Structures are given as structure tokens and as C-alpha cells.
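Comment on this:
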Amino acid sequence: MANPVLWQFKYSHYNEKARWALDFKRVPHVRRSLLPGAHIPRVLWMTGQKAVPVLVLDGRAIADSTRIIEALERWRPQPALYPPDPGERTRASELEEFFDEELGPHLRRTWFYEIMPDADFTVNQLTVGRCQSTRRIYRGLYPVVSRVMRADMGINAAGAAAGRAKAEAALDRISAELQPSGYLVGTAFSVADLTAAALLSPIVMPPEFPYPFISPLPAPAAKYRASLAQHPAFLWAAEMYRRHRSPSMEVVG
């Protein structure tokens, strides 16, 4: 049986959510890393939509990080990311959806608003691991790519301001939901914890993240990150990475 194949962006928190699930479940898999913008024809051909991650599992292309985890839970039930108790499972899924909708897109919009004016930094981060010639070509295309990204994700001053408020509300929600166990649901790590921590990875910048973060950050991004760095949910996400971010199961294929 062929190994699953993950089509991904390296520097993306939704893609990190899918990667983390694969690694947590110790699933050997191939990763095909794409560049934003250039990814569209390939992903459209596979799925009829343009977003990554996409996991090809047993010959079927599965789009969306939540659907990917659902498929992995059926395909490789252990270690489980869904709690065994039905009520806790429902709660974990509700929190996963909340963070997917109320944290992920808003933090992304705000973060890109802070870093994108520094074209060299943004290109270097988006092209981590690529050869120098690819990075030069992408740098030349960046004015076009950045316009598309801004339009597609609503990256502007108003969007960033709204995103900050949404992201901070989600951080407060994490703090409010934490159980005495230190997890969001019950007494064990679940899809709720994985989702919240993964979606915070751009600002937390945990050392366990599987690809390098470029430094130093542009000054506006560094200021924004510093404003959240002592929030209990920020510190909690870093702890979830320390405890549960398994080593990569990527294989060459």
C-alpha cells in the first residue's frame, strides 16, 4: 500500500494541523510542498477547490484539515485524537470547529498584515527549503502574489483590526475552557488541543514546528507577538508543542 501523500504549504497553521495529526498517529507519509499561488492548478485538479492541505489516502484526495483528521481517525484509530466518551467527543469537535472558524482565519489575516510589507522576509518564509533560483523567481512574482493574497484573505487595516479582536477573544476562550488536567476536554490531549495549538503556531513559533521560522521578525510583527507572549493561552500552546508535537513521520517518496 502506498504511503499517504500530504500536499501542503510549509508555513501554514491549517497545514500544520494536518501534519501534526499524521505525526501524532505515527503515519509515514510523503509531503509535497507547494508555493502559494503556484499551488492553484494542482489543487484544483485534485479537489475542485484551491485550499491546502490535501491528503491523498488510499487513492482518495481529502481536502480540509478537519476532514483529514476524521479520515485518519477511521484509518488509524490509535493513538486517538477523539475522546472515547461521546459527550467529550462532541465537545472536542465543537471546539475544533470554533478554533477553525474564529481563530485560524483571523490570526492569519492579522499576521500577514504585519509581515507582508517586508517582501524579502515574507518571501524567505514562504520559500523555506527552496533553491535559490526558485526564491529569486518567487521574489519577482511577489507583487502579484501579494495582491492576490490580500484580496483573497481580506488583508487590510480594517481586516487586521477585526482579526486582532477575534484572535484575542479566541485566546481568552482557550484560557476559559482549560480543564484541571491542562487540556481543553477531559484528561487527555485531543483534537481540540491540537487544533488550538497548531493554529497559534505562527505567533508562538515553537521550536518543535517542523520547519524553520525566519528571523528577525519585521518590527510590527515582533510587536504584535510580544503583546500576546504572556497570555496564558500563548504559553499553553507552547506547552502543548513541548508535550505532544511528535517527531516528523515524513518519508521520501
Remarks:
- Strands lie at 5-8, 30-33, 54-57, 60-63.
- The mean pLDDT is 96.
